[in-house]
Amino acid sequence: MTGSAGLLLASVQNTIAKENLGAIGVFSRFGGTIALFAAMGGTYQFITTATANLREKQDPWNQFLGGFSAGSFIGLRSMYTPVKPKARAEVLAVAKSSHETELKFRASPTT
Predict the structure, then answer these.
(1) DSSP state, 110?
(2) Furthest-apart CA pair in the chain: how many Å?
(3) What's residue 53's pLDDT?
(4) Considering only CA atoms, which of 48, 45, 8, 51 is closest in space to residue 30?
(5) In this predicted structure, what is the pLDDT of residue 69?
(6) pLDDT mean by block of 10 residues, the chain; 111 residues
(7) Is the pTM of this model over 0.70?
(8) Distance CA 81, CA 17 (A)
(9) Which of 29, 84, 92, 104 is found 20 to 30 A from 60 (Cα to Cα)?
(10) d(CA 100, CA 111)
(11) CA 55 – CA 49 distance, rounded (Å)
(12) Whole-number Å distance between alpha carbons of 61 and 55
C-alpha cells in the first residue's frame, strides 16, 4: 500500500519536473521516493506486529514503536539532524490517529 503511495508521489514529482524525463523517469530519477515509502510501510508493519507478538498485547505502544521506526527513514534520508525527531513525531501522530479511528470503526455496531 505505501509503495503505491510512493509510486503516486514519484509520478507527481516526475510530472512537475522542469526537464522532460519521460515515463521511465518515475523509476530512474524518483525511485528513491518509491523505495522510501515501501521501506516505511514495511518497517511500520513489521515492528508493530513483532512488538505485539513479543509483548503479547494489543495496545498503542505497538503503533508507537512502529511509527517511531518508520519515521526514522525520513530522517535518515534527509541527512539533517533536526528533521529526525520531527519526522518521527509526524509518523507517530498518523499512526496514533489511524489506530484510534480503527478502534472506533470496530466498536460501532454492524447491522
Answers:
(1) P
(2) 54
(3) 92
(4) 8
(5) 82
(6) 80 81 80 85 90 88 82 72 70 71 60 51
(7) no
(8) 27
(9) 84
(10) 22
(11) 10
(12) 10
What nine digits make up the cell of 87? Answer: 519526522
Residue the block writes with cell 533536526: 82
Would residue 58 be called left, alpha or beta, if left means φ above 0 and alpha means ψ between -120 and 50 degrees? beta
pLDDT at 20: 78
What is the distance between the alpha carbons of residues 89 and 26, in angstroms, rounded to a whole number? 29
- All three cell numbers of 30: 524518483
**How many other C-beta atoms lie within 10 A of the C-beta of residue 4?**
12
Q: Phi, psi at residue 11, to the nearest 5°?
A: -65, -40
Please state at what angle helix 31-55 crosses helix 2-16, rounded to 10 degrees.
Answer: 160
Under a CB-based contact definition with an 8 Å cutoff, are residues 44 and 67 in contact? yes
Residue 38 identity? A
- Looking at residue 50, its pLDDT comes to 92
